[in-house]
Design goal:
The protein contains 9 helices and 14 strands. With 361 residues, the protein is an alpha/beta fold. It has 2 domains: 225 residues, Aspartate Aminotransferase, domain 2 (3-Layer(aba) Sandwich), CATH 3.40.640.10; 102 residues, Aspartate Aminotransferase, domain 1. Helix 4 links the parallel strand 3 and strand 4.
């Protein structure tokens, strides 16, 4: 076995114990004499597996009963469009906070359905900070306020939950869900693509306050209506069964780690070590994000001389540190430190970085 430390932004590394369990039970699952991928989603065994996953997720995040949990498809991008379709009347106001590429994309996909407006944006400064909580206000007639708690590309995260009064708060938690506890009651709708902290791609997790399912919206076909998915227990059509099963294993793994408070402490320690290595490198490495807005999950950084990028990437890969190339929009490097990345991986990375700086400084 030569599994490396994988810093991919997504699809990202999964806990090794989870992959091992999936491998052990891949051919024959729970006495079914078939793989979990090869059985009906409507059979007793899979229904039990699906319900257990929802139960464990509800425990982990302390999801109140007046919220539905949906296991959907389409990725976060599809729901950039589907959320306005479900929550707003045609052309109704919908407000957006812009802190990076993903919130921009959410705004642009909403355009055909709502009067989508940015009410605060850090684009002018190159997306290196979050807006002050007092610097914006939501339109009173807005169907919802949308924001992105963690911007995967820019490495920018909120250190507060936006307050929108009676307007429901919608959050794209794709790259930070389950990385720390959160108060679900503050939100109208939380959604997250699975491929970072939940499981394989192809699954989208949604937590939605049940009163929002009663909005008429503008989705015509049932397949686009969240209320229809909720009514059918996310089995309106065939769900991504393997991804749902694997997400269930990840939820169990998280419980074994001590739950979200415990994982949050490890995540903070990992991020602190990496940011300290960058900040104490005398300018060899740089992260441009305001300290209060630095992401614990995605850490972009540049080398003082971009000519060294190729050597850094080649040597880090040879040292067993994978996928450190930054997103093309910001350049340089990016280390993603999702839940499955152990502290040992970040230690190996920071030791490599310090040694690389010593040799090339
Ligand atoms: N939102 C955020 C915050 C993301 O990080 C990503 C993917 N990296 C997306 C949305 C888009 O997800 P998908 O490709 O699953 O549509």
């Amino acid at each position: 076995m030569s599994r490396a430390f994988n810093f991919s932004a997504g699809p990202a590394g999964l806990p090794e114990a989870v992959l091992q369990q999936a491998q052990e039970e891949l051919l024959e699952w729970q006495g079914e004499r078939a793989s979990v991928m090869e059985i009906s989603h409507r059979g007793k065994a899979f229904i039990a597996c699906a319900e257990q996953a929802e139960h464990d997720l509800r425990k982990l995040l302390d999801v109140p009963p007046d919220y539905a949990v949906l296991f959907l498809q389409g990725g976060a991008t599809q729901h950039f469009a589907q959320i306005p379709m479900n929550l707003a009347a045609p052309g109704q106001a919908a407000d957006y906070l812009l802190t990076g590429s993903w919130s921009l994309k959410a705004l642009s996909e909403a355009g055909p359905y709502v009067d989508a407006q940015s009410i605060a944006s850090s684009e002018g400064d190159g997306f290196v900070d979050i807006p002050d909580a007092q610097a914006w206000s939501v339109r009173a007639d807005a169907a919802y306020l949308h924001y992105t708690p963690n911007e995967t590309i820019h490495g920018v995260a909120y250190d507060y939950v936006p307050e929108a009064g009676a307007v429901p708060l919608v959050a794209d938690y794709s790259s930070s869900i389950l990385s720390a506890p959160l108060d679900v009651r503050r939100f109208g709708l939380i959604y997250a693509g699975a491929q970072k902290n939940i499981g394989p791609s192809g699954l989208l997790l949604m937590i939605i306050r049940r009163d929002l399912l009663e909005r008429t919206g503008q989705a015509r076909a049932r397949i686009f209506q969240y209320a229809a998915h909720a009514k059918e227990g996310s089995m309106l059509n065939t769900p991504p069964t393997f991804a749902w099963y694997l997400a269930g294993l990840v939820f169990k793994w998280l419980k074994q780690q001590g739950g979200l408070s415990a994982i949050a402490r490890i995540n903070a320690e990992k991020a602190e070590l990496l940011y300290r290595t960058i900040d104490e490198s005398a300018g060899f490495y740089r992260n441009p994000v305001a300290k209060r807005a630095r992401s614990v999950m995605n850490v972009p950084f540049t080398l003082h001389d971009p000519e060294l990028d190729v050597a850094f990437l080649e040597q880090s890969k040879a040292a067993g540190l994978l996928a450190l190339k930054g997103h093309k929009l910001v350049g340089g490097m990016r280390a993603s430190l999702y839940n499955a990345m152990p502290l040992a991986g970040v230690k190996a990375l920071t030791e490599f970085m310090t040694e690389f700086a010593r040799r090339h400084g």
